[in-house]
Description:
- There is one protein chain.
- Helix 3 (31-45) packs across helix 5 (65-80).
- It is built from five helices and no strands.
- It is mainly α and 86 residues long.
- It is 60% helix and 0% strand.
- The longest helix has 16 residues, at 65-80.
Amino acid sequence: MYNAETGDGILYFDGTTWGGLRRSFDAGRTIEDLRLVVRDKIAEWGNDAKMKRFIRPSTLFGEKFEGYLAKARKAEKEAGEFDDYE
């Protein structure tokens, strides 16, 4: 999922990253929630040379994941509000 969204070829996640993913799933988060965070951070940080390096599993799925998810959901909702207007 991460590699598909980012185009990276990461083959190994360290124990900290796996722990973050486990916490997310234990809290009821889904693969789609993880994808949403990755997509949101790519959109936000992808063109910023300083921040682009933080688009990595240890950052995205770490302690700040819930905050990233809340922001991504808010951005998705705000973007969707314009779908009804033509």
